[in-house]
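Here is an idea for our session: we take a single protein and study its fold together. Start from the sequence, derive the backbone structure tokens from it, and show both lines together. Once you have written the record down, we can walk along the chain together:
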Amino acid sequence: MSNGSFPPEPGRRGGTLAIVLAALIPACFAGWLLWSSLDGSKDDGADGAGAPTTSSTSSPSPPPSGAPGAPSAPTSSGSASGKPSGKPLAGKVVVIDPGHNPTNRDHPSQIARLVDIGTDEKECDTTGTATNSGYAEASFTLDVARRARTLLEARGATVRFTQDGDRPYGPCVDERAEIGNKAHADAVVSVHADGAAAGERGFHVILPKSVRGGGADTSAITAPSRRLGEQLRSRFAKATGSKPAQYIGDGSGLDVRGDLGGLNLSTVPKVFIECGNMRDSQDAAELTDSAWRKRAADGVAQGITDFLNE
């Protein structure tokens, strides 16, 4: 004991202890109950399956579907209103055939060999024509085809090319037809530019003639191909301001031919479009203009779109 302290008297010590114990026992019991409750909550989550906490930045859980305030479920079309999702060509397959090939000229023997077009034999391919300044038809067709592809893909179509400047030459005309057939294309458009005499202007669309012979049978595609051609003629004229050529097809803008392997061997709707005359100076000025080629691609893409949405 420390100096200066005195022991309590016996009677007072017993009474004081009783009072202290009476105060401490209820407090200890309450503390034990609180500790037991907290420890039990901790044990419930000891296996990691306890309910996660919500941080101060978390959004409250949404009410069950169908409950007041619950968001509406999306419709099968991807739009809450049930309207189309803005992809009018979803599920459609389009094949674009850029006429000729920029490097055909480097493979004269390969493109000169004859291939069967059903009713006859013709060259595998040709170099195509060019403007007087040397702008090649094959360069023109690739540019317009690529622009049209961008537009059609934005509308949901699957677009395939017969060539994209990625082949040494060709493909041959029979293979070009086969690419569209194997793709089960809903529409095929072969993009070209003509090489008529100077002074002849305008565009025209070439339709398949009804032919049957050898591997050729266009009887099933002549009618839908004509509808495709008519839509293409209308939209191309509107987009470019060009007029149908007067030097071919009686000025109608439509010409029917049975000597083109790309059409004869097709089993799906297909047409050619001659976008203008590269040998005429006025037409050539348009064909070599990037802004005009954009309008040409708009016309091609819209003509295809209209046909597929009939």
